[in-house]
Amino acid sequence: MLSKVKIRELRALEFKRFRDEQGLFVAEGNKLVADMLHAFDCEWLIARTSWIATQGDIPAKELVLAEEGDIRKVSFMKTPQDVVAVFRKPSYQLEDANPDLQLVLALDGVQDPGNLGTIVRLADWFGIEHIVCSKDTADVFGPKTVQATMGALAHVKVHYADLAVYIGKRTNNPVYGTFLDGENIYAKKLSPHGIIIMGNEGSGIRPETASFIKEKLYIPPYPPLRETTESLNVAMSAAIVCAEFRRVAAKHRTAINH
């Protein structure tokens, strides 16, 4: 049975302060929870019998069988599904986000949970294992962001740090950012490792962060002189940039193999 105490505890996790205090976050939805069960420690899970029957052994410390209306009481979704889970937040080492060996995404003040979730999905798709966020970037463990990652949060490690300090210690690496006065990304030689910085939805990359950027990139419209919108959404830009880095890397590997 779902107690009032459990309902109150779960609903409180909508707010960052309580997520930080408890070290917990919420995920919901049939596929999302199933994808995350083996990536994070599950403190407790509430689900309908129909979902439980499809899962086999469920690695949750506490399993609550949902009765009529229980899911709706704790769901943050307009149309609740069959399961809601409370997971323990992971602990990662920032040193593992090493741009000497890999591409690392850095997010400078990205505010929209949907954009952040989409960028996590993009990172997962393009094999980018680490994202380093400024401390004022949206919380990746907020319910809206967790939903927007569509399970990619199980494969991508998201860190929060002082970006200036993080990048400042790694100035020997290529550091990229997108700017209107940058070089055409499609004509630019790109490295298979380094840091790619994406900025805030409205103000872009902060000057103190931009001061570390060695390679300014520009995503040109097509055709070049066609009048178009002022800019791309940060998640759209991240998709184009990541795809181009991976295309160039794949082309380079093919050339070496031949």
Q: Which features characterize this protein?
A:
elongated; six-stranded parallel sheet; alpha/beta; four-stranded mixed sheet; 10 helices; 258 residues; 10 strands
Description:
Helix content is 33%, strand content 22%. The protein has 10 helices and 10 strands. The chain has helices at residues 4-12, 16-22, 30-36, 49-52, 70-74, 113-125, 143-149, 163-168, 207-210, 234-257; strands spanning 24-28, 42-47, 63-65, 83-88, 103-108, 130-134, 157-161, 175-184, 194-199, 215-218. The strands form 2 sheets. It has a 6-stranded parallel β-sheet. The protein has a 4-stranded mixed β-sheet with strand order 1-4-2-3. Strand 2, helix 4 and strand 3 form a beta-alpha-beta unit. The model has no long low-confidence stretch (mean pLDDT 92).
Radius of gyration: 20 Å
- Distance between the ends: 63 Å
Q: Which residues form runs of ≥5 with pLDDT under 50?
A: none
Strand content: 15-25%
Largest sheet: 6 strands, parallel
The ordered string of helix (H) and strand (E) elements is: HHEHEHEHEEHEHEHEEHEH
Specify the structural class. Answer: alpha/beta
Lateral strand order in the biggest sheet? 7-6-5-9-8-10
